[in-house]
């Protein structure tokens, strides 16, 4: 059955007809800025088609509940659970009852969830109840936004999915989507693209005018006409409206919205003192409204941490009495002895400096060494000295040579100091040159090849000079100390290990 709905009149005065049967198959998109007459257009469509097709209205502002008195629509208050809304939507399809889902008073996220649940109930109805239904969604950009907003991603996802199902898959289930939006740029493209009929109203932004012109197949220069449209004027295009863009003016409606456009009303005439009393004094019969007392805002985290620090300082225990520190020479001798105990373990040479340092600090506490503990650089120097066997000799000349050797070692990197001091100590005592195994142990490695490469590196730096005697023994000379070692077998076993 072909049913024509009169939407208004064209610019030439002819009746602007809408083919309702074609609309059910091709869907409709209405666009226009606030005040352009979108709600008036939707109301005209609903009133003219109410006798021919079942209707469901998603009403975010409660404007369409006035249809109930004149056309018998059932108003569904959205203050229900999502499961209840799904069941109500399914029953509405079963009994072919036109309904208005009133979302007034809910926040944006709650509106999205309720609309998604209701549309899901319409969409998931049993196949026996897939009767034709006109589903009108006012302010569709609220339920199918093009970008994330202040609502949660979950709410946006379910609402956008329900709108996409309505516009893309609803036709096979008898659902014809009619969506209205203030701005095409705010509406998800996959929802807007499913409509084949368009009614474009007044708009001012270039991006919206350009999209409207593209949808209507108009030239970009013709898009300027959308700025000049008056309230209630729209440009129509689509198989259910017209094959070519045609301007039309929407006709009158029988019902009215609860919210209307602002109308200027004269201000009441009253003396200033009466106006003062009207505001600050409670009127006769006016109920007393108790204003809830809001708890004070929590203090900043920085202030809380500062208060805790002050409280901790106030209750801090009294400082302990200072303990008599042992003499520096005695403490140094004790530290050398502790280091010697650590290095007595044959595996200590191959442990990391950090592990040896922790062991050293623990042993110092056990020995109750007072004074400032040795820092890590000082520990590295002490380790190199003790590992090389440098001790305070008896005669002054050797003592001066050892001090000079330690000064030279300080100019080298920390990993080379122990090797240099080992060679310097052998040169000062004129004992055989340490073998490769001893040099490797001083470096903390078991690689003899690395030990030989380290000797070559020190010689390249000009710190030592290596030579072999006529028997093949290795001699290491330290020119700056004017000392050299006795010949030694580089392949001999390490005496400290063996």
From TrEMBL:
Any coiled-coil regions, as ranges: none
InterPro entries listed in its UniProt record: ATPase_Atu1862_pred (IPR014588), HerA-like (IPR008571), HerA_central (IPR002789), P-loop_NTPase (IPR027417)
All residue ranges annotated as the Helicase HerA central domain in the record: 10-73
GO molecular function, one term: ATP binding
UniProt keyword terms in alphabetical order: ATP-binding, Nucleotide-binding
Keyword Lyase part of the UniProt annotation: no
Hydrolase recorded as keyword: no
Entry-linked Gene3D superfamilies: P-loop containing nucleotide triphosphate hydrolases (3.40.50.300)
PANTHER family assigned: HELICASE MJ1565-RELATED
Protein name: ATP-binding protein
């Amino acid at each position: 059955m072909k049913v024509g709905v009169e939407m208004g009149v064209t610019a030439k005065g002819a009746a602007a007809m809408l083919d309702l049967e074609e609309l059910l198959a091709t869907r409709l998109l209405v666009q226009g800025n606030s005040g352009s007459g979108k709600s008036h257009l939707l109301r005209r469509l609903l009133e003219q088609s109410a006798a021919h097709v079942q209707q469901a209205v998603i009403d975010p502002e409660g404007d369409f509940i006035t249809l109930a008195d004149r056309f018998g629509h059932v108003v569904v208050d959205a203050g229900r659970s999502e499961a209840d809304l799904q069941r109500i939507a399914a029953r509405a399809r079963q009994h072919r009852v036109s309904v208005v889902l009133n979302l007034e008073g809910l926040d944006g996220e709650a509106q999205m969830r309720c609309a998604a649940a209701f549309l899901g109930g319409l969409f998931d109805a049993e196949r026996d109840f897939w009767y034709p239904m006109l589903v009108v969604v006012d302010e569709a950009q609220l339920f199918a936004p093009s970008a994330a907003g202040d609502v949660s991603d979950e709410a946006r996802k379910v609402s956008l999915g329900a709108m996409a199902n309505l516009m893309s898959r609803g036709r096979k289930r008898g659902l014809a989507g009619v969506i209205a939006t203030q701005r095409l740029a705010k509406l998800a493209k996959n929802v807007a693209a499913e409509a084949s009929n368009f009614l474009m109203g007044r708009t001012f932004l270039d991006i919206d005018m350009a999209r409207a012109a593209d949808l209507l197949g108009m030239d970009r220069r013709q898009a300027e006409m959308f700025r000049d449209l008056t309230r209630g004027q729209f440009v129509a295009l689509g198989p259910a409206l017209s094959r070519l863009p045609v301007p039309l003016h929407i006709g009158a409606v029988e019902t009215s919205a609860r919210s209307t456009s602002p109308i200027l009303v004269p201000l009441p005439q009253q003396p200033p003192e009466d106006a003062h009393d009207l505001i600050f004094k409670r009127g006769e019969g006016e109920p007393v409204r108790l204003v809830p007392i809001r708890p004070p805002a929590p203090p900043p985290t920085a202030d809380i941490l500062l208060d805790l620090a002050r409280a901790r300082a106030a209750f801090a225990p009294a400082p302990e009495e200072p303990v008599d520190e042992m003499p520096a020479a005695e403490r140094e001798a004790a530290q050398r002895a502790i280091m010697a105990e650590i290095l007595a373990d044959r595996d200590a040479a191959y442990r990391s400096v950090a592990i040896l340092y922790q062991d050293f600090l623990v042993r110092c506490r056990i020995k109750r060494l007072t004074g400032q503990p040795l820092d890590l650089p000082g520990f590295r120097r002490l380790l190199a000295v003790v590992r090389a066997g440098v001790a305070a000799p008896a005669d002054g000349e050797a003592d001066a040579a050892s001090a000079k050797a330690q000064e030279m070692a300080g100019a080298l990197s920390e990993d080379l100091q122990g090797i240099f001091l080992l060679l310097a100590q052998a040169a000062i005592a004129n004992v055989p040159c340490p073998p490769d195994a001893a040099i490797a142990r001083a470096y903390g490695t078991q690689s003899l090849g690395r030990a030989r490469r380290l000797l070559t590196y020190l010689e390249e730096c000009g710190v030592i000079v290596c030579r072999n005697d006529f028997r093949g023994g290795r001699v290491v000379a330290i020119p700056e100390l004017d000392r050299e070692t006795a010949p030694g077998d580089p392949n001999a076993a390490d005496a400290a290990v063996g």
